[in-house]
Amino acid sequence: MSPANIDDTSGPLGTGAQRPLTRKELRAREKTLNTGGQNAVPEQAYETGEVPPQPAAPPAAASPATESTFAPLPGAGDVPAAPQTPPSIHDDAAHPDAAAHHHTDDYQDDHLDDVTPLTDDVHYAHQEAHIHDETDVPDYPESVHGHSEYEATDYHPEAHPESAHVDPVAGILPAASSEVVKRPSKKVRRRRRLLALFLTLAVFVTAVAVGAQFLKPLLGSGKPSDFPGPGTGEVRVTVASGEGTRSVASELENQRVVANADTFMQAFHASGATLSPGDYVFKTEMKNADAVNVLAGKDKSKVIYFALSAGLRISESLQAISEGSGISVQQLQALSNQPAQFGLPANAKNLEGYLAPGEYRFPLGTQAKDILQALVKATTDELVSQGITDPAKQYQAVIVASIVQAEGGQADYGDVAGAIYNRLKPNDQTGGFLQVDSAVTYGLGTRSFNFTDEQRKDKSNPYNTYANPGLPPGPIGSPGKTAIDAAARPKTNDYLYWVTINLDTKETKFAKTLAEHNAYVEQYNAWCQANAGRCT
To answer: Which end of the chain is more exposed for a tag (fewer CB within 10 A), N or C?
Structure first.
């Protein structure tokens, strides 16, 4: 027997035909009861979407006992065929309890009649949801779930209002107004990966660079500390006046004379040498020690080197130049006796006072005149820097500076220069006489300040400032930079005398009167007696 025949006999008898009602007719009856018989929609409207015209009058009831309170349904033959549905996904063979739950094709047709027509995908999705979880199926009468008989008296329509029916596909399909978030395309994802990789790489490089700055002092600069030497070729480097050791060391490294400026400076300072202006000849890739010897003047085979101390007289200076350059003293003396060719005024007899103190280095083969010219220029440049440009005034300043250099010792050179200029002015203490021992001894050709009273009165000595007023005819030695600056800009004071009372400490005392000065002279004599042989 087919399921359709079973379905037809499962319900109570219908009116008129005295046959059992089908499930479709039962549902139509239920809907009629729920709507109170008003505007009832025929069953075929749910299947076809079309509402057929109502009959002119309902058919007469078969008997009063079976009189219905709702409009009669069309005959069974008038019910349109159900739309074709996909094959049932239920398989009685797959379910052992199929005898208890008959999910027949008619049930599928009847069950889907209450659902708004959907696409095939949604239809199958609904069927799959129905299979996996029967608890999600809307609350239909028990006959829907396979009971063989339907008890009309046990069914309570009011317990199942329309609002309580759950849409079986409500949880499957998204709402019409909901938005679908699309996954980024491969191109976008690739760009994001590349950006993340680039940012990671940038952070890594930055971290390495910052770390290198902190580690650099610990790991060193990577430069070698020294060359093995002895070096090759010839490199000439000029050290300017006032140039610092750091500047010279950097130049030597740039010229590849030394490997490392820092280690060279350490070696230079450790040697105790002093930096002096001049021209130096080096080799490329020298050892630090060898380069220090050149700069310190110890490598005399490669450079002309000599040193002049402040206070040296012309004869002493020319001797030192001769020893360092190999030029004869006679040749140097002949040039010195022609001061005009070096820019000195006519009253200058030689280059005395103009051979500036310091260390000098000249390339081998430098001419004697060029050497002397360089030394004179150093002195005149210092005078010009102090505002003295006239050669005659320059010469006078050099004379005063040479006396300051010889007399000052450790005293303040500015005060000594101020006292000298005070003595040259009319006063009741010195009468315009300088009265300096250093000038007297220069004229005598000695270094000792111990001379006789007869020598002190000898006017034939042009440098005897006790017997001849005013300045001596020329400088009495080579003044240094400090003495030149003091002579150019003396301090204003009332002093007329000064005396060094201790030759070890060079302590010098100033006085405004002769009596005060004589008291300081007695202190000097007492020191000489306590230190026998030191004052001769």
So the answer is: N
C-beta of residue 85 within 8 angstroms of C-beta of residue 123? yes
pTM greater than 0.90: no
Question: Counting beta carbons within 10 angstroms of the beta carbon of residue 27, is it exposed (0 to 12), middle (13 to 18) or buried (19 or more)?
Answer: buried
Phi-psi region of 331 (alpha: psi -120 to 50; beta: other; left: phi over 0): alpha
Instruction: Give the tokens for residue 371.
Output: 């050497």
The DSSP letter of residue 167 is P
Torsion, CA 211, CA 213, CA 217, CA 219, rounded to 10: 50
Among residues 110, 157, 151, 112, the alpha carbon closest in space to that of 11 is found at: 151
| Of 533, 309, 536, 314, nearest in space to 442 by CA | 314
Judge contact between 136 and 168, C-beta under 8 A: yes
* Cβ-based neighbour number of residue 459 at 10 Å: 9
Dihedral (C-alpha) 14, 15, 18, 24: value to the nearest 10 degrees?
-20
Q: How far apart are CA 431 and CA 19, in angstroms?
A: 169
Whole-angstrom distance, CA of residue 81 vs CA of residue 72: 19
Instruction: Give CA separation, 111 vs 60, 82, 116, 145, 284, in Å.
Output: 31, 11, 11, 10, 105
pLDDT range class, residue 212, cuts 50, 70, 90 = low
Question: Checking phi first, is residue 314 left (phi over 0); if not, alpha (psi -120 to 50) or beta?
Answer: alpha
Helical axes 105-113 vs 120-132, angle rounded to 10° = 110
Neighbours of 426 (CB within 10 A): 7
190 or 80, which is more confident: 190
Helix (H/G/I), strand (E/B), else coil: 464: coil
Per-residue pLDDT of 220-249, as tens digits, reads 456 889 998 888 888 888 888 778 889 999
- For every residue of 8-55, DSSP letters joined together read HTSSPBPTTT--BPPHHHHHHHHHHHHTTTSSPPPHHHHHHS--PPPP
Distance CA 438, CA 142 (A): 144
The CA distance from 417 to 427, in Å, is 17
Written as one letter, the residue type at 204 is: F
- In our burial notation (b when 16+ CB lie closer than 10 A, e otherwise), range 469-504 reads eebbebbbbbbbbebbbbbbebeebebbbbbbbeee
What single-letter amino acid sits at 165? H
pLDDT digits 0-9 by tens, 264-275: 999 999 988 888
Site of tokens 């750091």: 246
Q: How far is CA 216 from CA 220, 222, 354, 423, in A?
A: 6, 9, 51, 64
Strand partners, 306: 360
Angle at which helices 391-408 and 437-444 cross, to 10°: 100
| CA atoms 434, 457, 405, 335: torsion sign | positive
Nearest partner of 425 among 373, 492, 361, 379, judged by Cα: 492
